[in-house]
Amino acid sequence: AFKAAVLIQQWYRRHVARLEMRRRCTWRIFQSIEYACEQDQIKLHNFFSYLMDQFTPSSSKERDFISRMFISGESYKEAELEKYCDYESIEVPDSYTGPHLSFPLLPDHATALLEAFQQKQQLHARYVLNLLHETRKHLKQLPNISHVSTCYSEEVTVCGDLHGQLDDLFLIFYKNGLPSPSKSYVFNGDFVDRGKQSLEILVILFTFLLIYPKEVHLNRGNHEDHMVNLRYGFYMRLKDLMLYLFFTFAQVHGKKILKMFQNVFCWLPLATLIDQKVLIIHGGISDTTDLDMLEKIQRDKFTSVLRLKKRKESSRKAEIQAINGERESGTDAAANEAAPRLSLQPQSAQAPSTANRLEFSRWLRQTVQEQIDTCRRLVDISESEPEELTYSSMVSLKGVDDEPCWSRQEEWKQVLDILWSDPMPQEGCRENKVRGGGCYFGPDVTEKFLEKYSLQFLIRSHECKQEGYEFCHNRKVLTIFSASNYYEIGSNRGAYVKLGPDLIPHFVQYQANKTAHMLNMTQRQGFPVALFAKISRVEESAFRALREKLFAHTSALISAFKAYDGDNTGKITLSNWATAVESVLRLGLPWRMLRPQLVRSTEDGMLEYKSWLDDLAMEQRSQEHIQSSMLEVIYRNRSNLETIFRIIDRDHSGLISFEEFQQTWKLFSSHMNIELTDDGINDLVRSIDFNKDGNIDFNEFLEAFRLVKQCP
């Protein structure tokens, strides 16, 4: 009996160990593919930035059009935003049966919204615009770093990424209670994208923010970003929803709502500080993170932290001269040589002596403002000009005589690091090449940062964790993630953390999906079959995504395999297969361990790679019988093509106008050194407009790409 018990125990431990290994491999696959997609996003914008640096428009109209199309940081004057937010001119029809809002908001309005969204109702666009208008007014008065005290409420609840998963937010409110004067919440960014109910989440959070401004706090995440939204679905979901519910309104006012969301996002605070001891930021820190700088920068300048780089002043000046036919006078040249950074500004009065610090600071502010205004006029790109002073602008003006001036690049890096960075177990701080933005920071960086600002620990989000939360850096960094079933049903739990006056974290975990919840109940009762079933389902989803990734790189894989097949036998060793696959995909996965799930049969330890790739193609080929090589190209480029389409579609109408396409083609042709006349471009755009409606939709855009790639 004793031997039998030992054998059963050994079998069970081996079985659980195998399941754990499979679970970790599955997790690695999901995360590697997710981060690779983020890398593609940044590479795409670097490409457009390069194009903008190399392109010289032929006219001021062409320059203005392209600048407005591709500069992601476009913002608007106060008067323009007020015009965009003209919600009073929008009538709510009598047939509308959804919730109604009136301002100032009351708790009953929030309750009505929750009930309406549970019943799959939608809020009318007039109320959405009104809510955005009021939210923006409130956010503009908030500091960059919000301060929360546990003295005024028994505890503070901190929630991580929600990513458009409304069921998770409902479950949090069900378990923990709605926001109230005695129940404070901090929502740590990434409210949108990926999930299908981002709009509903924003409406609920903004409503509670206005009802309880001292108890509800919202931090900005890396997905509250104009350029990220173009790729990961929020803007497309919002546009589709508006078209479906309010077709006439969307055609006329859809752009207004998108631009208002864009502006509201850039006014979200960057961090929250609890009792001066716990700092809450979305991503992380770096070895250069400076809270004093973060407190004083004008955060609304960064509509997107992935914004395209500004063109060099020398290139801009040469372009202006080429367009306007201006020649530089000797006096201007001398002035430029003496002060190259102010080459485009009108000559200011002589600088006062630096001995009088106050007078010098005033002169410096005036000079810089003149330079900014001149640059705006030259490129015709508006910047926000608030009618009233905001909190951050007042802080900046107050400290200008006492603090050093920071460059825009330094300020941008501060924001980028706190939104995009991740912790690592190794010491030091290095570039985050996995995501393509931010940095990796080690425990030594955390320790120095906490000591410098007298903090106990950091709370951040930004990374999906299987249990919904995870400590690292000697329990000095806590990651909290609130979107359960993020990759697949059963893939992970969501969690939130509660902090009382003692600042000891208390966690609550959950899974919003009913199926996943049933599996977890069985698992807790000690039934391993349920655990096996859950892992198998999640594992199947991960390998399906990985096989799609492999298929999308078929051509590159064949070239890599042939490098190991010197005799052209069509076979390579499994070790060489693993090395070649990693050299192409660069996902950092344990390919030898994953091989049994990807390679079904081998002969004498050798793999017939051509037949293996044919099998991958058979799995992915659609019912339309698109040839494998074409399908491979579409799989590999679809996300980039969608993002490019949305960038060109400046008004987010879902259609590219002929003018938008013509100017974009000029940008590409200048990069590829292709000479094409205006008539040639017109012929090209008409050939892509298959239904001859005067616009190009995404299906036409994708079809044109497919036809071009099919041509020999």
From TrEMBL:
Similarity section: Belongs to the PPP phosphatase family.
Regions of compositional bias (Basic and acidic residues) in chain numbering: 317-330
Upper classification of the organism: Eukaryota, Metazoa, Chordata, Craniata, Vertebrata
Name of the protein in question: Serine/threonine-protein phosphatase
Required cofactor names: Mn(2+)
EC number: 3.1.3.16
Catalytic class of the enzyme: hydrolase
Encoding gene per record: Ppef2
Keyword annotations of the record: Calcium, Hydrolase, Manganese, Metal-binding, Repeat
Gene Ontology MF, one: manganese ion binding
